[in-house]
Design goal:
By secondary structure, the chain is an alpha+beta fold. The protein contains 15 helices and 21 strands. A hairpin with a 2-residue loop joins strand 20 (about 510-515) and strand 21 (about 515-525).
């Protein structure tokens, strides 16, 4: 029986059936036979040669398997050790190459997400074309270019019809690609120029409300120039002047209006407004220095004679009103609107579950949208720092229909062809998120940006803040604790033009100034 197995192994070895020969030579009795030992040596060398062929052809797993068999048969001989070293080096090189490809693809994906199509495509050209993810990204970049070409054509047609608002709404979702698409960049520049002219026209005519709306919309475009920033500052000055007048600070309002005249020399209404402010201040000064001013002083009363003093009835004590106003308890915040001068208006939702849908729904959503009533509603839930979207099958995330999905930074949510939202997590250290409206709006046209607030809202320069204000040189935070809103990391905090502590709760409907930034908080349901 042993001789038969040896003959079978010899025949399989000569025929190149090395795996069959290996199975036959596994028994100890076969290896102890002199003829069996010769066959074992021949088989080990044959496996080593076949392993080299597998290695040359790039079949690393097969080469490693032959190396292990040769090692088991003959031990760690020189040719076996050399083969193992070569196979391990090839496996390591393949892993490094795969990691390099993945890094290239991830880098290209980031460039495409940021709208730098040309840069992303150049990175993909340096990636192995056999890598399927690279090919998918190339197709994605090509599809994005076709989409931009279509939007540029539609926006150009709208611009030709003088429909500036529609043109802006069309290009807003792809304005981050303006640097990589020459036609889009030219169109965005033209839209900014025309919007700038219209803002200036509205301000010169005294339609500050319309100018404010356009300033908010143009803030979504990239590379806003200094002239547009000046118009935004002019709108901010108008709002500050109105707030000062509302608070009875006429002198401060007059100073702001004089600054406005430097920014808007063609606005004839400003001259009248400055005159009215000066007249109102003069009238107040006259009232303060007139006869009524004497009422705050108690007149000197000479001491009466003892007889007169006994004859006169005792005076009732005069109770003067307390000039210090009672401070109302700080409000408990639900959904609120944050208006920041020179930055924009923001809809803040502190609840952990937010329902988004048409304003005409039978159940009014937390984030009501001015869109068709048949559009499906969705729920965005925050659980342990993660955001989960739930909706019907017609809701798409990144172009794929979903009923439920864990949202990540940059996800594009589409409720219909014209109703889109972009989900962002600007800061990895914060669990608060943002939703940017596109193709739809709320009942207030100046709001297209929502904050899903967990513990804080970061406000400051750079894209890692929930609300970006490049006028700031540092970041401060609005903190929500037990329904009270406080400020953290602020150098100077003033409420109604009076300094307060950063631990004090912020009030509603009152001018608040934080390190040079003026804001007002209003109840969204008021």
């Amino acid at each position: 029986m042993l001789i038969l197995k040896l003959k079978q192994a010899d025949l399989a070895l000569n025929d190149g059936r090395l795996d069959e020969a290996y199975d036959l030579l596994q028994k100890a009795a076969v290896k102890q036979h002199r003829r069996g030992q010769i066959l074992v040596g021949r088989l080990a060398r044959a496996l080593g040669e076949r392993g080299k062929d597998h290695l040359t052809a790039g079949r690393l797993q097969e080469a490693l398997a032959d190396c292990n068999k040769a090692d088991k048969l003959s031990g760690n001989l020189d040719f076996v050790a050399q083969l193992r070293k070569s196979v391990c080096e090839a496996i390591q090189a393949r892993q490094e190459q795969g990691e390099k490809r993945q890094a290239h693809v991830a880098m290209a994906q980031r460039q495409l997400d940021q709208g730098r199509l040309s840069v992303g495509e150049k990175i993909l050209e340096q990636t192995d074309s056999r890598y399927i993810q690279a090919e998918l990204l190339k197709n994605q970049a090509s599809a994005k270019r076709l989409e931009i070409d279509s939007l540029v054509a539609k926006a150009g047609a709208a611009l030709g019809r003088k429909d500036l608002e529609n043109a802006l709404a069309i290009v807003t979702p792809v304005t981050h690609c303006a640097l990589s698409h020459a036609d889009l960049g030219t169109l965005v520049t033209e839209i900014k120029r025309q919007i700038m002219d219209r803002i200036e026209e509205h301000l010169n005519q005294g339609r500050v409300d319309l100018a404010d709306d356009l300033v908010t919309r143009i803030g979504t475009l990239p590379d806003v120039g200094s002239q547009i920033q000046a118009m935004g500052q002019a709108v901010s000055f108008c709002r500050q002047a109105a707030q000062s007048i509302e608070g009875g600070q006429i002198a401060e309002a007059g100073e702001i209006l004089k600054k406005l005249r430097l920014l808007l020399p063609k606005a004839s209404w400003l001259k009248t407004a400055v005159q009215h402010a000066q007249g109102a201040q003069d009238a107040l000064d006259e009232l303060r220095t007139g006869p009524l001013s004497l009422i705050v002083f108690e007149p000197y009363d000479a001491c009466p004679s003892p007889t007169e003093a006994m004859a006169l009835p005792p005076k009732a004590p005069v109770i003067l009103p307390n000039p210090v106003r009672a401070i109302a308890a700080p409000p408990v915040f639900g959904t609120f609107i944050l208006q920041i001068d020179g930055v924009g208006s923001f809809y803040v939702l502190p609840q952990s579950t937010v329902r988004v849908g048409p304003i005409s729904s039978s159940k009014v959503p937390d984030l009501p949208l001015m869109t068709q009533p048949h559009i499906p509603s969705i729920e965005v839930m925050r659980e342990d720092g993660d955001y989960l979207l739930r909706g019907s099958g017609s809701v798409q995330v990144n172009g794929v229909a979903v009923a439920q999905k864990c949202l990540t930074d940059g996800d594009r949510i589409q409720l219909s062809d014209k109703c889109r939202l972009k989900f962002n997590l600007p800061n990895a250290a914060s669990t608060s998120a943002t939703l940017v409206l596109s193709g739809t709006r709320m009942s207030r046209p100046d709001i297209n940006y929502c904050v899903l607030m967990d513990r804080e809202i970061l406000i400051g320069p750079g894209c890692n803040n929930h609300i970006r204000s490049d006028r700031m040189d540092h970041t401060f935070a609005l903190m929500l604790n037990q329904g009270r809103l406080t400020v953290k990391n602020a150098n100077q905090l003033m409420v109604n033009h009076k300094p307060v502590k950063s631990t004090d709760a912020l009030p509603l409907n009152t001018p608040i100034r934080i390190d040079g930034l003026t804001l007002v908080i209003t109840d969204a349901k008021a």
